[in-house]
Amino acid sequence: MTAAALALEARGIAKRFGACVAAEHIDLAVAPGEVHAVVGENGAGKSTLMRAIYGLEPPDTGVVAIGGEVVARPSPEESIRRRLGMVHQHFMLVPTLTVAENVALGREPTRGGLLVIDEVAREAEAIGARYGLGVEAHRRVGELSVGEAQRVEIVKVLWRGADVLILDEPTQVLSPPEVDALLEVLRRLALDGKSIVLVTHKLDEVLRVAERVTVLRRGRTVATVATRETTADELARLMVGGDVSAVVRERRRGAAAGETPRLACEGLSVKREDGRLAVDAVTVALAAGEIVGVAGVEGNGQEELALALAGVTRAAGGAVRLDGRDVTGLPVSARRAAGLAYVPADRHGRGLSLEQSFADNLVLGDGRRYAGAGGLWLDRRRLDADARDIAARLDVRPPDPEERVGALSGGNQQKIVVGRALLAGPRAIVCAQPTRGVDIGAAQRIRAALLEASDGGAAILLLSSDLDELLALSDRVVVMHRGRLAGEARLDAAGLADVAALKARLGRWMLGA
Amino acid sequence: MSDFVAKLLRIAVPYVFAALGGSFSERAGVITLGLEGYLLLGAFGATVAADLSGAAAAGYAAGAVAGGVAALLVAALVLPLCADQVTTGVALNLFADGLTRFALKALYDSSSNSPRVEAFASDGGAGLGATLAHPLVIAMLVAVPLAHLAMQRTTFGLRVRAVGEHPEAAASLGVSPLRVRLAAVVLGGLLAGIGGAFLAADQAKFVDGMSRGRGYIALAAIIAGGWRPLAAAGAAMLFALAVTVQYTLSSSYVQIPDWATQMLPYGLALFALVLRGRSSAAKPPSSLGSPLGKRELA
Amino acid sequence: MSPSTRLWAARLLGFVWPLLVTLLAASLLIVACGRDPIAVGRTLIDGTWGSTYGLGQVLFKTTSLVFTGLAVAVGLRAGLFNIGVEGQLIAGAFLMALVGASLPRGTSSIVAVPLCLTAGALSGAALGALAGALKAGRGAHEVITTILLNFIVRAAMVGIGQRLFLHETIHTAPVVPGAELPRLGRFVDAFHGSAVNASLFVALAAAGALAWLFARTPLGARFTLVGKAPLAAETAGISVGRTTLVALALSGAVAGLTGSGFVLGYKHYYEDGFSGGVGFMGIAVAVLGRAHPLGVLVAALAFGTLSAGQLVVNAAVPKEIVDVLTAVVILAVIGTGPRLRQFVSRMKGGGAGQGARIQ
Prior knowledge:
The structure holds three protein chains of three kinds. By secondary structure, chain A is of the alpha/beta class. In chain A, 33% of the residues lie in helices and 25% in strands. Chain A has 17 helices and 24 strands. In chain A, helix 6 (176-191) links the parallel strand 9 and strand 10 (195-200). Chain B has one domain (2-211, 283-297). Chain B has helices spanning 2-27, 35-53, 56-78, 85-108, 128-133, 135-153, 155-165, 167-172, 177-203, 214-224, 229-250, 258-276. Chain C is an all-alpha fold. Chain C has two domains: 1-35 and 320-359, no CATH class; 48-316, Orthogonal Bundle (ABC transporter involved in vitamin B12 uptake, BtuC), CATH 1.10.3470. Chain C contains 14 helices and no strands. The two termini of chain C are 33 Å apart. In chain C, 57% of the residues are buried. Chains in contact: A-B, A-C, B-C.
């Protein structure tokens, strides 16, 4: 290996999943000791590329070389052996095991047949101290916060002697101050001679910490530039391949005095399984046609709030009102009948029955629409018609009502979930993570549909970990932290004048500062 | 009193072995309904081997092997072929039931039981001393703490626990969930097979359907024990206690009809399942029942 | 081949392949007994489909298997595995016999038969509902609870039998004439002497009713949703607990009707051991028939042939071979199942989805 050898190189990577081409032809070259960003919007192939390089899902074609040496058959063991480590977007941590056990898994040190975890614990904490990644080795991972868990992931990788680290969308789940801390860690690692590959779609982070950036679009490498010589706008244009037509909102004022809120949440509390409060006396009121965004790091009660509003879980206290009417004690179906729709965050788990068809999945919406003759007969014709209607309005591809939903892309699946919720013209919508993991075309359509609904008078409570999306769509933004509302910002002209300051303010609330 | 304890230990052996074995395979994420079948096949294999060879030890070994091979069959269906784990377990039990009954007829020309196996007929009697000297009873008493140690303090145990909760995480670190589950499932079959061997050895013959639901009760013990080998063995012991009480009652002068006491162990197991219910301590391993995805099949 | 033809080809393959595997297993076992598989096979076919009497016997066995197969299928539709069918059918048959024997002598068939059938269905339903309640309320897995209930029912039957069987027999008093279902031999000479009776029509009606329930009613749609995506169903406001309860109760009810063939149509009383494992065979029937009423009918016929044939071949090969083959069928079906599904979905052209399970 010569001094000029690349720390990591990928040439001509291609990968398909059935009919879906996730990567067509991707090249990547990472120099030793550099922080190299890989950007692209959802569906461009970033994660696919990394998982292919790391060996979780080896590429169909293409060559991977680590430290100048070609890897014949990429696999996690091989990557680890060659000092390539990966911090995954969805954490690869076993919640019931301790930090030390998670770190040691796969490379367990033993003496006389028995594990010596304490050694690992000490080493892990030492590594943590060295790079500013504090970890407590004997805590159970399930109890850690998202930020803490991520630090464990990084320590895990470093403990195995990684010289090249891939981080896949690491800041997705972090609040702004936590992002700053992470970027600082990356700088320290690079100073120590490690090579970093940062996969992200957050362009401001790229410009702050990376030296070079590779842009992916639709499964191909589009450009590799030095960050010094480019701007966020240029990168965005390369990412999207043209002008970014953002969906713009005409801001509304809130409810006029004395007007009954369309959707109101009064001192709503929700308990977790262990008895602690996931949602702590949250009060928020939405006027007809108003969009209120709920920001916050995932895991601060947003999911529980949404489920309780929808009626899926029971509240421990407080009330939910729809047009002034108390719906707190009503089950999901009754709330839906009253005009409250719900778009769950987890479309695979809660939103869809993946093995069934598009049309069959509509029964998960307003079941009563399709029950004829006193509930004795299923109106298949109406299911079919409604499916075609949704397909037309949101451009679901393929627009076949009999198509198995599991075979559709994430964006099309989400279109079905959203379209189904909007079908009966709801008066209020609780919408969680509407565009997570969705390609930009689908995201546009979904946002447009939501705006259209709010134009029609629907009140929308929009919960999203995508701060930019919230800022683009909401009239007001509230921040959830540890189950409580930590702050509120009105997104009028004054509020949006200094976006950076606004984000900083929201960021502080997200962390409870 | 010592007679009671001796009886308890003897009755406990199949329950405890099945519970220990099953706790490993379930903890690794594989629903193990086939325990009943492993017990039965272990009993039959042990009977035939001991009968043919004249040595009890051959019987014990054959019992373990029979259970292990059956578990291998289950693993072949469930792991690479991703067959439904529940159906596979039930099917294995039906298979074991049918096969043993068929072989019983074909080999021994009987619809109810095999002839007495002299190699198993012990001369020491059934007292406490003889019981404690029985190799499989000793094995049971040793296996319980050993299983706990294995689960908590060995690499294998750690990997079983990891794969049971988050197979993808294990795969991302180069640990093959397929291999770990395979090992755990086969271990389960081996241990349950030994338990089955004792069943036959204790009665010195094979009786049609002699497992009589012990495998399902062992499963209830595993669930009641929160998928921990030590606790599962403890629960299994409790169920064995109920059975021992039932035997003692039915042979005593107490006027409880046989059929009522016969219900006792099953009713108790049912009760245990209901009790364990939805408490958070009863949370099963997260990947229990889920087949391995493409990326975990390494 | 057009896509839909390929789909049907795949479905057919999914039915035929397990049967081939079973044939192989059967041949191996027969050879192990020192016999010629072809000869045994021919004896089987001759003894069953070779005569109208044999056919009648096949249909008699098929009747019970349709009931048990449907019972398991109902559960499977909702993602539940009711393997306590044996216990439920015993309880159902017993109550059927009791009610049938307790009615006034002159009760007309129009009253007696439905009454007995209802009694059978209700007792089966009660057991099913119990398992359903335990699952819905306490999360107790229905496989374990139904099997445990099986053992409990069997133990209870010993005690009840001691009390209610006719003195020195293992059966109950005969049912009143109004409750008897006529044998088909009365109307169709060809079936003279065989046990097949009008309960066959009850079974077919049940199959039809369930087919309609599954495909054309909201309840059926809820079953499927709860079976395939319980979390999504719960989120949509469908009560998984209530659906579980209803599904297992319905499953138990259908199982409870099984005894009508023997109790109302054949011997006219309940007899210890009459069921002979038909409850467990029903599992194989449901699995082979892919939990679809039409598939269940075809699978029941196949197993009915085996079941009726086992006595015919008993001289050559132990009749217990059928028990082994029942299990082999299930193993063969589930071994091919997922692979087949991949095959089918690839032929339907969908493949982009990373799959429900690969997350």
